[in-house]
């Protein structure tokens, strides 16, 4: 068993890809012995966005605070979905996705990602 | 992509094993196409407890509200850990675990479980 409180972790500014004003905290990962899926928190400041992303591993997201917009691509068309606290969101394998904070408060969400190896 | 708000789901009373006064909501599962890990919310009322549990699949827990006590067994000894909002908890494969709410407010947490098949 491993336990850590999210408030005790300093967020790291994510500068991967097209991410802007987005901070991450790794909550549960390899270092804890988690072999199959990992838990992180992301904080997107107002005006910020996560990276435009696509990958084999699934995401499961739970929105803790704030509001935002999720963009995905379905059959070649851009789909915009409003997201808010309490939303649970499943992003399937290889689905393009990006989250924007167009509000005036931080958007905070848990994001679980599968470890690549479980998809092969 | 699938999205559902936790507030729109009616909780189900869990009567499995030694669970008491514990309610569950399935947020992301098979029905959504999630093949590797699933997301649920559990609400433990004051005086309640989750089932005394042990299984191959890992858990990753994030406490949303309230306080509680996590009991695990380490080298044959009972270990009690206080838990509170913001805690991220990793329960490893085959680790015995049970969560109690000894407070006077509901204890609410997200729990991700791996699908059994990814452990074989």
Question: How would you describe this structure to a colleague?
Answer:
The structure is a homodimer of 120-residue chains. Helix content of chain A is 0%, strand content 57%. Chain A is globular. In chain A, strand 6 and strand 7 form a beta hairpin. Chain A has a 6-stranded antiparallel beta sheet, with no helix packed on it. Chain A has a 3-stranded antiparallel beta sheet with strand order 7-6-9, with no helix packed on it. Chain A has strands spanning 2-5, 12-13, 20-28, 37-49, 59-65, 67-74, 77-84, 87-91, 97-100, 107-114. Chain A is an all-beta fold and 120 residues long. The first copy, chain A, has no helices and 10 strands. Chain A has a single domain, classed as Jelly Rolls, CATH 2.60.120. Strand 8 of chain A pairs antiparallel with strand 1 of chain B, so a sheet runs across the interface.
């Amino acid at each position: 068993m491993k336990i850590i409180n999210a408030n005790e972790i300093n967020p790291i500014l994510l500068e991967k890809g097209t991410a802007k004003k987005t901070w991450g905290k790794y909550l549960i990962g390899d270092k804890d012995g988690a072999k199959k899926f990992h838990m992180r928190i992301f904080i997107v400041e107002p005006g910020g966005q996560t990276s435009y992303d696509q990958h084999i591993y699934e995401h499961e997201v739970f929105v803790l605070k704030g509001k935002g917009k999720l963009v995905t691509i379905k059959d070649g068309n851009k789909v915009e979905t409003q997201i808010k606290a309490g939303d649970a969101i499943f992003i399937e394998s290889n689905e393009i996705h990006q989250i924007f904070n167009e509000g005036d408060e931080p958007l905070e969400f848990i994001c679980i990602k599968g470890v690549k190896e479980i998809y092969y």
